[in-house]
Write a structure and sequence with these properties.
The chain has one domain: Rossmann fold (3-Layer(aba) Sandwich), CATH 3.40.50.300. The protein is 47% helix and 17% strand. The chain has eight helices and eight strands. The longest helix is centred in the last third of the chain and has 24 residues. Bound molecules: zinc ion.
């Protein structure tokens, strides 16, 4: 039986992480973020692990070829064989997508699809700019002014430790605009690539209540699994 490999794509604040966690808890899914894969590979050591360690230590971005080799090494040696895979943060560029396609052709047995979490820019901005984090490093509590259950009792003070709340520097309106621009460029390039190569691209409207989003998620993956083959590029 083919193993499903799901490329997750969604703007910040779209609840990708929440839905993935639900999938892992309820269904035979493994969720991996590229950040965790790089940490895993660094801990494994070897030439590749040492390279990652060097890039991370010097605060540099890990280059495409190292990211690609890490994903390949994980798929070959560590990825569970009895679960479907949710891939988060990879591929992010057309070059990475091409590399993943050729990897899957070599490995065989995977049926790929892409899942797009859709949320309007206005809603993303509304969600992110309403987020507050505790300024006390050891506490780090996160709040949302939009959600009754996640709101602090006082908009500017942490419930847990009493420290002032702040807006994360990448959640300001200007920073969010930049993040969205980058996101759309990446998402459009990947969507085009996968559509050109006959890979199913499913869209998920994430404005609904989270249980409904999860049901849609399951239905989308079921529909995806009927598409099994990558067309050669
Ligand atoms: Zn706090």
């Amino acid at each position: 039986m083919n193993q499903q490999l799901v490329v997750l794509m969604g703007p910040p604040g779209s609840g990708k992480g929440t839905v993935s966690q639900m999938a892992v808890e309820r269904l035979p899914f493994e969720h991996v973020s590229i950040g965790n894969l790089l940490k895993w590979q660094a801990a494994e050591g070897g030439e590749l692990g040492q390279q990652i360690d060097l890039f991370v230590r010097s605060g540099k971005l890990v280059p495409d070829n190292v990211v690609i080799d890490t994903v390949r090494s994980w798929l070959l040696s560590k990825a569970p064989k009895d679960k479907d895979l949710l891939l988060d943060g990879f591929p992010r560029t057309r070059a990475q997508a091409v590399a993943l396609t050729s990897m899957l052709q070599d490995l065989a047995g995977f049926s790929p699809c892409m899942l797009l979490f859709e949320l309007s820019d206005e809603e993303v901005a509304r969600r992110l700019t309403s987020r507050r984090v505790c300024s006390h490093k050891q506490c780090g509590a996160v709040y949302s002014l939009l959600d009754e259950q996640l709101a602090p009792r006082n908009d500017s003070v942490c419930d847990r430790c009493g420290a002032p709340l702040q807006i994360r520097s990448d959640d300001t309106a200007d920073a969010v605009r930049v993040r969205l621009k980058v996101y759309h460029e990446q998402a459009d390039a990947l969507k085009d690539y996968y559509q050109q190569h006959g890979v199913a691209v499913a869209r998920l409207n994430v404005l609904a209540p989270v249980e409904d989003v999860f049901d849609d998620f399951v239905a989308a993956l079921r529909a995806c699994s009927s598409v099994k083959v990558f067309k050669n590029s």
